[in-house]
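Figure caption, in words: inputs first, then the predicted bound structure.
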Amino acid sequence: MRINVTRSSMPDFEEFCREIRPLWDSHWLTNNGEKLLDLQSRLEAYLDVSHVSPFTNGHLALEALLEALDLEGEVITTPFTFASTTHALVRKGLTPVFCDIRESDYTLDPALLEGLITEKTCAILPVHVYGCLCDADAIQAVADRHGLKVIYDAAHAFGVSRNGVSAARLGLASMFSFHATKVYHTIEGGAVATESAELTQKLALVRNFGITGPDDVVSVGGNAKMNEFQAAMGLCNLRHVDGEIAARRHVHERYMDRLDGVGGLRLPPVQPGVKGNYAYFPVVFAGGRAVRDAVCEALDREGVYARKYFYPLVTDFECYRGRDGFDTSRLPVARRVSDGVATLPLYPGLADAEVDLICRVVREAVRNA
Ligand SMILES: *Cc1c(COP(=O)(O)O)cnc(C)c1O
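Bound structure (pyridoxal-5'-phosphate present):
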C-alpha cells in the first residue's frame, strides 16, 4: 500500500450520522442553519477570537476578505506559499509585490518590508507557512508606521498560538482553510477570523449576494456560504482536533528523533513559545534540487509520496512567469528553500514502522546522492 503525504481525518461514522440526523427533520441545508451557527460560535471559542465567518472554502474566504476591505493597489506578500494566496490577490485586481522569506522559519522577512513599500502599497499579506507563525510584532510595527493593513493567510495555522495568543488574533484579520487535507477540516471549507464587527458584517454581504433582508440587496456580493453538511463535519472534527494534533505530534517527534544528525538535511523550524499544530514535516536539503529530487524518487520506489511543497515558487508558475514584478532575482532565500524542500508524510495514524521506513530511505538516499 502506498503511503500518501497526508490522509484526511474522519470522525466516527455513527457520530457523523447523529450530527446530520436533524437535517432530515428540518430540511434546512444551508443559509445560516443550526449547524453553521453552532460551529461558528464553537470556532470563535476554540480560536479565541470575537468573530469567525465561515465560508465554503478558504480561497473564497480570502478573496471575500480582500473585497470586504476594499483594497486597491499593491499588496506585499510571500512567494513561498500555495497558489491560492497569490491568485486571490490577482483575481481581486491587486498587484502582488513579493518579499523574500527568512531562513529561520520560512515566513516573510519583516526586515525587507520597508524597501518594498511604495505610495501604492495598501496591505501586507504574510503566510504562517507550515504553521510557523510570522513575526507579527515586527510586521505590525512596519504596517503601523506606513498606515497599511495586515491580513494573514493562516490556512496552515489552525490551533497554533504563541505565548498563549492565538494565531487568529494577529493582524486585522486571518483566513483559515478547512480543506480536507488540513489539520482541521469541514471537507471543503474556510473562515475569516477577526476582532472587527464591522468587517464581519461586510463579509456576510460578500458571502451571500449582498442580501440584508427579504426585499433588500445592498451590495454586489457573490455566494461562498458553508452548508450544513460541511458544518456538521466541522462540529464532529472539532471534538477530536486536540487528539489529532497530539497524534501528529507523536509522528513529528519520531521523525525528529530518527532524522537527527543526518548531514545536509534541515529539520522543521522550532519556534520559541509557539504551540504548534504539526501540520507538515518540511525538510530542506542543503544539496538543493538534485538531492531533494533523488530522495523523493527513492521514497516513491518504496511507495511513499513526499510532496515538493512549495516548489516551484508561485512566481515560477506558467501563469505568472515573466510577468512584470514576478521575477525571482530579489528572492534568493525563497528560491533556495523551494529548491531544497520536501514535505514528508504526516497524519494521525501514520504507523511508527512507516515513519521508520521513510527515515531509513531518506538517510540512504542522502548518503548516495
Ligand atoms: C489550503 C490553502 C489555501 C486555500 O484553502 P482552500 O480551503 O483549499 O480553498 C490558501 N493558502 C494556503 C497557504 C493553503 O495551504
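The first strand starts at residue 51 and ends at 55.
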